[in-house]
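Figure 2 data, in text form.
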Amino acid sequence: MALNKSMHPRNRYKDKPPDFAYLASKYPEFQQHVHTNLTGRVGLNFKDPGAVRALTCTLLKEDFGLSIQIPLERLIPTVPLRLNYIHWVEDLTGGPGPGGARRGIDIGTGASCIYPLLGASMNGWSFLATEVDDICFNFAKKNVENNGLSDLIKVVKVPQKTLLMDALKEEPALLYDFCMCNPPFFSNQLEAKGVNSRSSRRAPPSSVNTGGVTEIMAEGGELEFVKRIIHDSLQLRGRLRWYSCMLGKKCSLAPLKEELRKHGVPKVTHSEFCQGRTMRWALAWSFYDDVTVPSPPCKKRKLEKARKPLSFSVLKPTVTLLRAPEGGDPDPSPTELIAGWLEKTLTELKVQHKRVPGEGAEQSLFLTAVENSWVHIRQRRRDQGRQLRELPRAPPAGGSATLHPAQTAQPNQDPPALGSEVTGEGGAEGKEDVPAAAQQEVESRTPPSSPGGVQHFLFKCLLSVREEGAGDVGVQMHWVEGQNRDLMNQLCTYLKNTLHRLASTPPAPPLTSP
């Protein structure tokens, strides 16, 4: 199980992922689903619903003392991700410490009843858990009873499309601290299967998608579902201190926040839940003026990511392959060699640059990129390779071959480039987020000699070269400004791969006379 370092800091799995080998040795029902690869690493097939269910049940038993049963045809929750949500509700309601007993509502609790079971067993919270599906309702009731938590958790069967209003009619005077909801993500079966809803550049899901129709699909998808919760909250207002939900699509967050703003909801916050390649977004709102609103942690992470420079190292053997520039120092330092190579390469790429003062022996260049020249190199290499493959083979002895015009190498063809496949942070290969009109304007004007004087550019950055010891050299690219930071990442990857290719390419044999 790959866990993300940005999980909630109190999540027990953040720094200590589950030990599959230990769990398999202790729980025979889990052991039958694990496998060991050639390196001896124990793994799990997350495409197998039975394996996912075995892991969830085993973790709840081992770490929380909970014994549950889940049918394979209903949603199988992952424990670390649900634990993130529980910890965030703790943050909303004042923490899990002394006096932390709370009363909450779980909208659509599912067969596992996992949120109430975790909240009750960890913090002593009491829950009203609602469910519309008969199978889920029966399993949820049994799971609560089998764990002796019926005094804290009340599971109720509600009609279809019931959210908060109808569920609270029986207890009109009771106040709740929060509500939780994992709404159906999809609006139809095609969307649930990923048709027209998943980017072609995005990796396929790493785990199987289980769940009944009412658990994964709703009219209008999660956006309309949560809007109905917002509508109920506008009528209930102070009956709950915090309303919250977990979203499966980031694109749902902005319109829901706008919906809350439009209705004048005073307190709104959001967060992110991360588990490996799985991302979820949480939204919470309140009508109370005295609640403490947690700051979205994602803002801090994005700022840190934006400030962190891109960097790579050039090892000493690669540095020694570079020649000193003509007319320069006959015995240049490693940083001067790398800086000279970078200047030459940037000139070939038509990236404007100039030397700026650095600290000590550090060499610094100020870069201004006005066109994405490096992204086309890979396609050019492919075209050249295809043309070489189309050249006719040598004829048999005594035979002859006629070259057609299309098979003749062009004398003015560009030489093979030293570029490499460049992939940006977003995973889009060769993607250029530059408007066509702006790109045409950039290509039509003659770039000025000074990088700082460019009026239209893709990005500007500071490139620094410094020694790292033992003859190695470190290169860092610091973002200054521009249209898309991913373009700087592409250029950095191109420079790094070109240097690595230089070190791995054997020298050409000397030419001999026939």
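Caption note: Confidence is low (pLDDT under 50) at residues 186-198, 211-217, 398-449.
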